[in-house]
Amino acid sequence: MQPVAFMTLKGVIVLVRLYIMHVFFCCDGTNEWQARCCLCQDGTVDGMPTWPMIYYCMRCGDLAAASDIVNKARQHLADFPQFFREYVNSGAGRFV
Q: What is the pTM of this model?
């Protein structure tokens, strides 16, 4: 995994990255982080698995951060960006 400058990331995304690193990754003793399970099959965003990043940003209530992740990973997500945009724009937190 390549390091990402945390200062270039904002708010919830930094916290979600740190949480995912703590829960889903472990250090092998050589300062290289290895995934504990196969979360990266649908791509990564800044070295983090896409779906946990989206999920935890949404759980934190930061749809803007989740939208940033969806936009960065759009090539791996097929039709999901369109559905997610509909969800965000509905304002009610549900699909129309």
A: 0.74
